[in-house]
Write a structure and sequence with these properties.
The longest helix is centred in the middle third of the chain and has 20 residues. The protein contains five helices and no strands. The protein is an all-alpha fold. The model has no long low-confidence stretch (mean pLDDT 82). Helix 2 runs parallel beside helix 5. The radius of gyration is 20 Å and the shape is extended.
């Protein structure tokens, strides 16, 4: 008679689970959102958190998720707005962001003056970066 094969499952470490990572990213974003925009403290904090995520991404400490095999035709519809945004942002930046033709970043400054909105934007940045680290 054949022996039944043993089934095993890999369980992710506790700190890799969303129930742990989301609150950690939320805490980091709440701290980062309290710094004034473009201050020395905000820049050091962003470089520190970004650098830690880059280090995690380049090290072999994180289990990798499989990369997508390829992009379908619908990916163009996601890339197109990002490309248009990049062209307009770059053009207005290189032409000298004036009051008549401000960059999107300059238009977002009044929104980002509010610490809670700045924390939400910081959380989106950290979550996107965390997704890249896991690839």
């Amino acid at each position: 008679m054949e022996q039944p094969q043993e089934l095993t499952a890999t369980v992710p470490r506790a700190w890799e689970r969303p129930i742990v990572t989301v609150p950690v990213l939320a805490l980091l974003s709440l701290v980062g959102g309290q710094f004034p925009s473009f201050s020395t403290q905000a820049n050091v904090y962003a470089i520190g958190t970004g650098g830690a995520l880059v280090w995690l991404g380049l090290s072999n400490r994180m289990p990798r998720r499989p990369a997508p095999r390829g992009f379908g035709g619908s990916a163009v519809w996601w890339v197109l707005p990002a490309a248009i945004f990049g062209v307009f942002e770059g053009a207005t930046f290189f032409l000298g962001s004036t009051e008549e033709f401000p960059t999107f970043s300059k238009l977002a400054d009044p929104l980002l003056e509010e610490p809670l909105i700045r924390s939400a934007a910081y959380f989106a940045w950290l979550a996107a970066f965390w997704g890249l680290v896991r690839r």
